[in-house]
Design a protein that fits this description.
- The structure is a homodimer.
- By secondary structure, chain A is of the alpha/beta class.
- Chain A folds into three domains: 126 residues, MgtE N-terminal fold; 107 residues, Roll (CBS-domain); 182 residues, Tetracycline Repressor, domain 2 (Orthogonal Bundle), CATH 1.10.357.
- Chain A is built from 21 helices and seven strands.
- A four-stranded mixed β-sheet of chain A has the order 1-2-3-4. A three-stranded mixed β-sheet of chain A has the order 5-6-7.
- In chain A, strand 2 and strand 3 form a beta hairpin.
- In chain A, helix 1 packs across helix 3, helix 14 crosses helix 15 and helix 20 runs antiparallel to helix 21.
- Chains A and B meet through helix 1, helix 11, helix 12, strand 5 and helix 14 of A and helix 1, helix 11, helix 12, strand 5 and helix 14 of B.
Amino acid sequence: MPDDEATLPIDELLRAVEAEDQSAVRAMAEEMHYADLAQAFQELEEEQHGLFLKTIGPALAADMIVELPDSLIEEALGAFSPSELKVLFHELSDDDRVDILQDVGDEARLRFLGLLGPEDEELTRSLLKYDHDTAGGRMTTRIGRVFASQTVKQAIEMLRRSQESTETLSRIFVVDEKGRLIGKLRFRDLAFNTWDTPVRDIMREIGTERVLATADQEEAANMLLKYDLIALPVVDEFGHLLGIVTHDDAMEILQEESTEDIEKIAGIGGEQSEETYLNTTILTQFRRRAGWLTGLAFVSILSGYVMMRFGSVLSQVFLLSLFLPMVVAAGGNTGGQASTMVIRAMSLGEIDEDCTWQVAWKELRTGFFLGALLGTCMAAFTLVLLPFFHFALPPGLTLGKVAFTVAVALTTQVTSATFLGSLLPLGARAAKLDPAVVSAPAIAAIVDVSGMVIYFSVARAILGL
Amino acid sequence: MPDDEATLPIDELLRAVEAEDQSAVRAMAEEMHYADLAQAFQELEEEQHGLFLKTIGPALAADMIVELPDSLIEEALGAFSPSELKVLFHELSDDDRVDILQDVGDEARLRFLGLLGPEDEELTRSLLKYDHDTAGGRMTTRIGRVFASQTVKQAIEMLRRSQESTETLSRIFVVDEKGRLIGKLRFRDLAFNTWDTPVRDIMREIGTERVLATADQEEAANMLLKYDLIALPVVDEFGHLLGIVTHDDAMEILQEESTEDIEKIAGIGGEQSEETYLNTTILTQFRRRAGWLTGLAFVSILSGYVMMRFGSVLSQVFLLSLFLPMVVAAGGNTGGQASTMVIRAMSLGEIDEDCTWQVAWKELRTGFFLGALLGTCMAAFTLVLLPFFHFALPPGLTLGKVAFTVAVALTTQVTSATFLGSLLPLGARAAKLDPAVVSAPAIAAIVDVSGMVIYFSVARAILGL
């Protein structure tokens, strides 16, 4: 969340837009960070968008547009003439340009590609080959690159020539004559060494800190996280250096993936878009949630069927109703906890394929202890508090027997639900599915059914109904 | 997840440890990234730890130990003698040193502080003043810092002298005579300008891209994310530059916070530690989950109480049991979806205080549409499929009336549960609580009760029971 200082310039800008003071708007926009500019843009009324964009011009608008939610990008680009769009696309870094072209419609993409210079167009087309969610799809090719055979002086001159077009010189990568990645340097390594030092002598070799262009973006982000990198080099299958994925992309990727996990666990479907919550329409919200809800509702009918079949048990001992929702819900809660822990641990790369049984065994024991605790609590509740309420019990039944029933049913339900909650995501992965598809509501719906069966069967056996 | 290439050197190292080939272990450890080294360390047997640490020595072990889970850090440090520990602590960057000292026990902290040189000790003590989860607690003070009044030549010489102790020169910060932050530079800005250029002329001014040392670490991480920064300057209330929070810290913070959100939403309590899932003991797991489970179980007894009170309704029309679990669960599912969406959007800074009613109104409508959809599905199911099963109905009741009951109850339950699911986290924030304390299971437990009341009341009214 931005602090109070940060909102000040945005508010000032909004006031200037309101007052239609175009020169003030332009001056302020020049001083502002593109992320703040994007925030201000989204607070404007829709009919103010066009004039605002024209006022700040394509060069300043370029970086800002990248920060906008998908639904606003095509509209914002529509405010500019073809010649202004040329300027805008030229301002963008290559990965941002590709991002935008992937977000707009097919017709607009072709039109925009035609506006690029021949060099930019070729580069953009080659990057568009990679899926949006691969390392290649997220990389920038404008990187500092020198040859191992160069001297420090030659390397600095080469970097100086490419300075304008380079996204970051924080890390400089070293290639051999064939363009294969072999090492890296920091700018200070060049600056603090004598001019005739060979690059090969001062570079650090790069071992495993690289990623294939076709690898999933999450793999790239996790490597940047693991190795604390500013930039991760992207290579093809022969080791040729193609580009880098930068730290800011990695942060965005990790945030997107976390949001996706959270939503899937809660039973919200569909791809997580780059839209913010408030920018998502009710129709989209409806679509993403309706599927799971409807499916789960039909699973719940099974629970109802079990309840109906055992209806006579409830009408013989009304008191059993008091604990039914609790036994059932306890399974859903603990199963959801277990699956959530396991899914998150898998996302963080903490659980390998070969610890499946270690995890399941751990959860089985945790589940048993949790079930025993709950069972004991509820048995104590039944024996200590319920006598004050003078519930009518059929002849031959005692509160002691009811307490025992509840304790046994709860322990069984919680143990089995915890075990199942950990096994289902592990099973999903073994079946090459995303573990997060096993949402907490899905587990709850399943163990609702088993909970009903467990509760009524235990009651029948112990109470002799 | 590491790719196949990445696991190779780790496996090789493990084989060398197994073969007790100490010179090979040392040679390999020198070539490896500390993150890989930490991974290898955790795969060793516990009795191999001591020899392994002695073999690689304190200098190489330093960065590796920072990457270990909390529970292993104090044990690992115990393998070294006081003189080796001096070397180890000297190798660490100041923020990592503080991190470690915050993780160990009080007695160990005092002992380790005594091993630092006077300068390091003073610095470390001053950093320990900041809470671990503030910007000050995560910052490093070893930064590139130059004065606005210097020339490029003076600035480069100053940086060269402090080269050894500086964590990153990717961003160099510019201060005035009083040490107040006023701008920033990239190394290339110095390298590609003439030596007599004043720093003031080539620096870029820093506006809102700074954070107070006492601010929450999440605020710092979100600013790094928003502004795509490599390093965020940390200042005191007077604007004096104290240090920086770097991009890799920001990534860790964001991952930790996401995990915490996910766990809280699933009803898992307590602070999220830096432990991995497999390193957490069953006792810890039990403690973190038992609280919510037990509390929710008692809330569920309320549902049971409602069910018991309305028991006569169920025994008059057995068919109503078929839909009871479904109506109740649909509320829990949709309420959980709504709260999850709202909590995540708040974490991402997408919902300000002043859009509370906008969000609630949006969820109210989404909830109504979802409820109407479910209600229609279930009414159709009742009218089209149930006649085939020839359920006995009391005189005067028709399947049409039952279908109408289910549809009305479902729509009411889903609408109110969705509305409540969005309002509770917003209310928690208004009450200065963490919105994520409103876990999905808690919402489910609450709307279970209201669902029972809604279902039975609607049934009584429509069916005249």
